[in-house]
């Protein structure tokens, strides 16, 4: 479910900020997801 949410946010981010900005956001979301899993 978290992966689905990350995918949706990434998809919209790419549309809003362009492919380059979307990549940065995806990296940030992936990092946050990994940190959240550890807790």
TrEMBL record:
<protein>
    <submittedName>
        <fullName>Conserved domain protein</fullName>
    </submittedName>
</protein>
